[in-house]
Structures are given as structure tokens and as C-alpha cells.
Design brief:
Length: about 425
């Protein structure tokens, strides 16, 4: 029986990897220019970490965690990156060393969701977390960087949604108000929403169910319940975004599926339809209570994460050109060893090289060379070895020259730097 990959978990094959590398390089460049440093945390954490930070009454914690039981421990594959980075921040006492910390990460996350286009059980996120800056300027700078980043990558039809959830007290008041508003509609709500009515009515706001959406359409807005300080913060954010020329819409219904958010909340979607119904490319927000909750001091925090698969789906599928390769084709056993030495010299000079030591006729070796898409093929036989040369074939320009062994690397480099077929090639 052929074994299949786990449902919702995908192989990324070498043909596709060029696009991933290009996206990852663009993300790293953009993060590092803005002062973020990479952090790598484990893929497995104590399940308790996610229960405490993401919240017990959330889909992720209730239904989507991959749990591993080992001896006395209950572990979970990380469903997101924020909790692990916050745990590491507290554990390493970084708050004592620097006033503001800026981290970024790129890695796989795991959620047992129903797979569909743009939604997987193993997916890749890139995200950042900032600790120590409470102000709305920090939030605006982050959102602005993300809009420029997505535009720079070529993602079209962006929609930037922002909201404020206030602090714990405001959210408690809102939960009350929303619960009282929705209770009379209880029999019109989905079963899932009815269950949430008492423990977490905010989750009903982002329900995809049409009946739930109809019920919440005229629900009270959390923005009306913000206290003076929270309102000033939110106004500071929208003012800064306007001044930066960052497009945004205020969306009072935006809540997102994690319970740790306070104040600023945002999401960037693409409305082009490339990623089906999963139109959120990235989401983030402030979570000023988490560091304290995890045993650290009171440190404000904000961050975001984007789904790499979703961004790749939203981008035109242009193949990324692979670097020109050299194929070394030895004829006979003696030449086989020389081929390995030649390949070693070429690679040391930074030239991607394949050495084919499977043997065979010149014709079959040239066919294999063509199959790899190589630009140059080096042919080495007994005659060439005795004369201290190699035969250098340009497979694209269809020319060939004899090159002394000692000059080989320099000549190959020079040829690779030219367009195939140009006079100097
Ligand atoms: P999130 O909204 O759960 O937030 O996920 C962020 C992004 O990850 C989504 O916008 C989406 O692009 C991608 N994503 C989520 N689930 C899936 C899935 N099943 N398949 C494919 N892509 C997916 C967070 O995870 C927060 N940790 C973001 C954050 C960082 N907030 C503060 N700091």
C-alpha cells in the first residue's frame, strides 16, 4: 500500500521551492531592515501554554490542537508562533536587557482544521513580535510595513481592516452587552453560536454562518465602549496611518480567533479571489496582558503573522529561474575520479555543479546534461586527461572549446556570465 502524507499536510517539491525561497528572502529583508532579529522556538510546547495564552474557549484550543501525550506531559504542536515567542521572552529575561525587543520568525504551524484551498493542517507562518512599545505609533509602523511589503511582492487588491478591542475591562463590558443583545435571537443562531453565547460571545462576530451574520449585523460596536485612554490610543493609530498614507478601513466587527488581543487588532485580506474563501493573508494585534500572564513583568506587546501558502496563492505563479548549472560528464573510470575533483573546484568557486558518475556513452551523458537544464557540460575522457584539458560544451549556444584544466574554473565562470550565443560566449 502506498503511504500518503497526513491530510492537510503538503510536500513542497523542488520545482516549487524557488518561489518559497524568494518569498522568504523578501520577508527576511523587510523584517531585518526594520530592526527585527530572528528567533527560533520549538515546534512542540506544553499544551498548557496555548490554553493560557490563546484562551480555552477558542476554536484553536478546543478543537484544533495536535496533542502529544508523553509520560506525564501533555504537549502540543504549536498552532501559532506568538505564545512560544512570549514564553521564550519571559524565560530568557530579555526585558531586563533591552527596553524594546523586536523578533521575527518563519516556520511551520499546525492546526487540525478542515483542509481547503488556503487552509491546511500544517502551514507556514512568518511573523514578528514587538515587546516594550505601548504606543499607537508602533502599531501604525507595523501595519504600514506590512502593506508596503505585500505591495512590493506584487499582491493585488489589498484590504486593510483595523479595530480596537480595548482592555480586559472594556472587553468584559462588551461581552455583557453583546450577550444581552444576542440572547433574544438565540433560537435563530447556529448551534455553535448558541454554545458561545455564554462563554465567549465575541466569537459569534466572526462566525461564517449566514444566520449568525444576520443576527450580529446590528450588534453594538465595541468602539463605542472604549474608555478614554483606549479611544485616544485608537485615534492615535488611525491618525498615524492616515499621515503615512496607509490605506485602511475601521471594522468594528473584526475580532479574530485568539483571545489574547487587547486594543489594536488588524487583518490584511486580498479581495482578488485567488485564495478562495480564506482571504486573510495576515492578521495581528496587540496583546498587552500576555507577558504578565506567563509570569513575566507587565510589558506591552504587538505582533502579526502571515500565511506563506496564502501569499504564494495570491501572487502570480511565475517560475523563479534556477541558477545556471555545470554538468560534468566523465567517460571511463579514471575520468570519474577527475570529474569529482573538477566538480569540487567548481563548487568551491560558487558554481552549482552536478557530477554524473553513473557511466555510459557520450551521447547518453549529453542527454542527461540536457535533462538537468545545465548551461555547460564538461566532457572528460582518457585523451583529455592525458593532454591536461577538458572539453567545455556550451549547451545553449551549441559551441565547444578545449580548455586547459588549470584554467577551467575561470573559463566556466566567464562563460556563465555571458548570454548564450553572444559573440563573447
Ligand atoms: P492567525 O490569524 O491565527 O494569527 O494566523 C495568521 C495567518 O496565518 C492567517 O492570516 C493566515 O494567513 C495564516 N493561517 C492561519 N491558519 C491557517 C491555515 N490553517 N492554513 C493556512 N494558513 C493559515 C496568528 O496566528 C497570530 N499568532 C498572529 C499574531 C502574532 N498576533 C500577534 N502576534
Amino acid at each position: 500500500m502506498t503511504l500518503r502524507a497526513v491530510k492537510g499536510m503538503n510536500d513542497i517539491l523542488p520545482d516549487e521551492i524557488g518561489r518559497w525561497h524568494a518569498l522568504e528572502a523578501a520577508l527576511r529583508r523587510s523584517f531585518e531592515l526594520a530592526g527585527y532579529r530572528e528567533i527560533r522556538t520549538p515546534v512542540v510546547e506544553p499544551a498548557e501554554l496555548f490554553v493560557r495564552s490563546i484562551g480555552e474557549a477558542t476554536e484553536i484550543v478546543e478543537k484544533q490542537m495536535f496533542i502529544l501525550k508523553r509520560e506525564e506531559e501533555t504537549l502540543a504542536l504549536r498552532p501559532e508562533g506568538t505564545a512560544g515567542v512570549a514564553r521564550a521572552y519571559v524565560a530568557s529575561s530579555l526585558h531586563g536587557r533591552e527596553a524594546v525587543s523586536r523578533f521575527y520568525y518563519i516556520g511551520p504551524m499546525f492546526r487540525a482544521e478542515r483542509p481547503q484551498r488556503g487552509r491546511y493542517r500544517q502551514f507556514w507562518q512568518a511573523g514578528v513580535e514587538i515587546y516594550g512599545d505601548p504606543g499607537p505609533g508602533c502599531d501604525a509602523e507595523l501595519i504600514d510595513m506590512l502593506v508596503r511589503l505585500l505591495e512590493g511582492l506584487g499582491v493585488k487588491n489589498l484590504r486593510v481592516l483595523v479595530n480596537s478591542l480595548g482592555g480586559a475591562a472594556t472587553r468584559a463590558r462588551f461581552r455583557e452587552a453583546l450577550g444581552s443583545y444576542l440572547r433574544p435571537y438565540a433560537d435563530k443562531l447556529s448551534e455553535h453560536a448558541r454554545k458561545r453565547l455564554d462563554d465567549n460571545p465575541l466569537r459569534i462576530l466572526d462566525s461564517k454562518n449566514p444566520e449568525d451574520q444576520a443576527a450580529v449585523a446590528a450588534a453594538p460596536s465595541i468602539l463605542e465602549l472604549l474608555d478614554a485612554d483606549e479611544r485616544t490610543h485608537f485615534e492615535g493609530l488611525t491618525r498615524a496611518l492616515t499621515a503615512l498614507g496607509t490605506p485602511f478601513e475601521v471594522s468594528p466587527g473584526l475580532v479574530r480567533g485568539l483571545d489574547y488581543y487587547t486594543r489594536t487588532l488588524f487583518e490584511i485580506q486580498t479581495t482578488g479571489g485567488e485564495i478562495g474563501t480564506q482571504n486573510a493573508l495576515l492578521g495581528g494585534g496587540r496583546y498587552d496582558g500576555m507577558i504578565k500572564e506567563l509570569g513575566g513583568p507587565e510589558v506591552p506587546a504587538i505582533g502579526f503573522a502571515l500565511g506563506l501558502e496564502r501569499v504564494l496563492l495570491a501572487l502570480p505563479a511565475e517560475p523563479v529561474a534556477a541558477p545556471a548549472r555545470v554538468f560534468v560528464a566523465p567517460l571511463g573510470e579514471r575520468a570519474g575520479i577527475e570529474a569529482l575533483l573538477v566538480a569540487r573546484d567548481l563548487r568551491a568557486a560558487g558554481i552549482p555543479t552536478d557530477a554524473d558518475t553513473r557511466g555510459g556513452s557520450l551521447k547518453s551523458l549529453l542527454r542527461r546534461a540536457d535533462g538537468t537544464g545545465a548551461r555547460l557540460c564538461l566532457v572528460l575522457g582518457d585523451t583529455e586527461l592525458e593532454r591536461g584539458i577538458v572539453m567545455l560544451k556550451d549547451l545553449k549556444a551549441r559551441t565547444q572549446i578545449e580548455v586547459p584544466r588549470a584554467e577551467l574554473v575561470a573559463r566556466a565562470e566567464a562563460l556563465l556570465a555571458t548570454e548564450p550565443g553572444s559573440p563573447s560566449a
